[in-house]
Amino acid sequence: MLNSIFSLFPVAPVFYHWRNRSGAEVDIVLDYNGVLFPVEIKYKSHSTGNDARGIHQFMKDFSHRKIAKGMILYPGQEAYPVNPDVMAWPIYTNK
After folding, report:
1. How many other C-beta atoms lie within 10 A of the C-beta of residue 14?
2. Whole-number Å distance between alpha carbons of 57 and 75
3. Residue 54 burial class via C-beta count within 10 angstroms: exposed 0-12, middle 13-18, buried 19 and up
4. CA–CA separation, 48 vs 53, rounded Å?
5. Spacing of C-alpha 33 from chain mean position
């Protein structure tokens, strides 16, 4: 499915998983058109700033690059800011 979605883009994005030597990590880093998009995936009803620690470390480690706001995908119903640099975005689930 992702291949068909990204085939609509003029340039295909590249996906990475990032982890540093200290153990900080980001589940998905999407590199598109020179911009890095850090994404965490959490399976809990509400994300907090603690869930954004890896994203913040990534932003520090790659401060020389252009980085979009971080995203936390979670199985909720509402989008909300976790902090000024990270948004929580719902992934709807059938319960």
Report:
1. 10
2. 24
3. buried
4. 10
5. 16
CA distance 65 to 75: 30
- The alpha carbon dihedral of 3, 8, 14, 17 has a sign of negative
Q: In this prediction, what percent of the chain has a pLDDT beyond 90?
A: 65
Structure confidence at residue 53 (pLDDT): 96
Alpha carbon distance 55, 20 (integer Å):
12
Rounded CA-CA distance 58/26 in Å is: 7
Share of the chain above pLDDT 70, in %: 87
pLDDT in tens, 30-74: 999 899 999 999 998 888 889 999 999 999 999 999 999 999 999
**What pTM value is reported for the model?**
0.84
Q: What three-state secondary structure class fits 57?
A: helix
Nearest to 19 by CA among 54, 59, 43: 54
